């Protein structure tokens, strides 16, 4: 995408969108301040918080540029930060998350060594009670493998992604109309457009899982599921006009859309479930994807009834686990 590169540099802009993150944003900022071998520009954009986040930001010192405004959504905050970024490399670090020492330097090295547009770090998924099993990273050898892995669950959250600033600007930045899977839409849009991908095996991004409404994308809703489906439809349309189209990638879209159809059924979102079903039927995909028990149960009971049964069984196992 960008054949003429400037001389390698270790100057990185880190954009931190914040919404009611008073209990977390200082940790994110300090993790950036602690990065060695890089110069950082920290830009925190408060998205209309009501919990005192601006007060926390004001106490973090002159090393952090910050501003606040009306609530306009995470993507608007990220685009505002992108507009202010001065460095040739940019990371979008959610206020919940943080990065381990050495992460930015390793990502810059990966971008520079591979002459790449986007680099991915190792990711640790962490909670108050410990670390979750490591997530498999997407393959980056070719665009089709990357898209297949990303849409079927091997994705990297924004805290583990470093961009060439010119690359994310050249594709138009974040889509402010989306309320779910905005980061996936941005990365997939760039990859399908020809962005070169790289991987770093050093450092780590920490993707924080917690209860409550602190994380911008935490709550499942009909509009968010609709947006996730819209992202998959867009991505499939973009792939269809490239050399990456194949039976393997079509199967991946079938699996990913059926996962959303199952979620819609689970939450009794009948209109959305029907919309996804009709789309999948028009694509000529199998009615059900997944394991044998899921496919048999869905055929016998119908998808909605099968998902309700599955939820019931999960709740029983949960209660038994607490009692033991």
UniProtKB/TrEMBL annotation:
GO biological process terms held by the UniProt record: single-species biofilm formation
Domain Glycosyltransferase 2-like: 13-147
Keyword Transferase: yes
Superkingdom field: Bacteria
Alphabetical list of Gene3D superfamilies matching this protein: Spore Coat Polysaccharide Biosynthesis Protein SpsA, Chain A (3.90.550.10)
Keywords: Transferase
Listed GO MF terms: transferase activity
Protein name per UniProt: Glycosyltransferase, GT2 family
Organism for this UniProt entry: Tropicimonas isoalkanivorans
């Amino acid at each position: 995408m960008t054949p003429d590169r400037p001389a390698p540099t270790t100057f990185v802009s880190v954009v931190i969108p914040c919404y009611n993150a008073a209990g977390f944003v200082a940790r994110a900022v300090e993790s950036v301040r602690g990065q060695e071998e890089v110069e950082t520009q920290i830009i925190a954009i408060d998205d209309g918080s009501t919990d005192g986040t601006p007060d926390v930001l004001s106490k973090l010192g002159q090393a952090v540029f910050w501003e606040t405004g009306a609530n306009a959504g995470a993507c608007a905050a990220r685009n505002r930060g992108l507009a202010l970024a001065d460095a040739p490399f940019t990371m979008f670090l959610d206020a919940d998350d943080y990065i381990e020492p050495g992460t930015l330097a390793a990502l810059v090295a990966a971008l520079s060594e591979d002459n790449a547009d986007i680099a991915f770090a190792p990711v640790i998924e962490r909670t108050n009670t410990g670390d979750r099993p490591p997530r498999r990273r997407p393959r980056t050898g070719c665009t089709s493998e990357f898209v297949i892995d990303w849409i079927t669950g091997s994705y990297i959250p924004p805290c583990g992604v470093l961009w060439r600033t010119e690359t994310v600007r050249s594709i138009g930045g974040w889509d402010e109309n989306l309320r779910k899977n905005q980061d996936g839409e941005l990365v997939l849009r760039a990859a399908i457009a020809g962005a070169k991908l790289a991987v770093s095996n050093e450092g780590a991004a920490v993707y924080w899982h917690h209860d409550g409404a602190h994380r911008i994308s935490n709550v499942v809703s009909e509009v968010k599921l609709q947006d996730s489906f819209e992202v998959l439809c867009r991505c499939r349309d973009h792939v269809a006009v490239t050399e990456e189209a194949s039976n393997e990638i079509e199967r991946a879209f079938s699996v990913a859309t059926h996962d959303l159809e199952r979620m819609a059924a689970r939450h009794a979102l009948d209109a959305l479930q029907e919309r996804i079903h009709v789309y999948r039927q028009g694509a000529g995909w199998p009615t059900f994807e997944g394991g044998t028990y899921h496919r048999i149960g869905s055929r016998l009971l119908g998808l909605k009834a099968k998902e309700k049964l599955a939820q019931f069984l999960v709740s029983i196992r949960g209660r038994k686990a607490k009692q033991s």
